[in-house]
Amino acid sequence: MSCIGFDTLHIGGQYRHFKGDVYTVIGAANDVDDMNSPLVVYMDASGILWARRLSDFMSEVDREKYPDADQDTRFKYIGERVEAV
Length: 85
Fold this sequence. Notes:
CATH superfamily: DUF1653-like domain
Order of helices and strands: EEEEHE
CATH class: Mainly Beta
CATH architecture: Roll
CATH topology: SH3 type barrels
Number of domains: 1
Shape: globular
Number of helices: 1
Radius of gyration: 13 Å
Helix content: under 10%
Number of strands: 5
Distance between the termini: 34 Å
């Protein structure tokens, strides 16, 4: 897939949402209705899968709506997922 930002997405990596929850990126998917808008597939701590357009996943936080957010982007890469032993 060619999309700005897709080459920086870490499949298997963990990302913190600007509201605090941590998610693991599982992979990417094509939107059947819009092949030019790849989706990021990610999982929360309880195992629920989510999908969001890559452009939204990588977007900046709306500072008018969330002026006190601790990070600049909706999701921030925080490292690779560590499996429990």
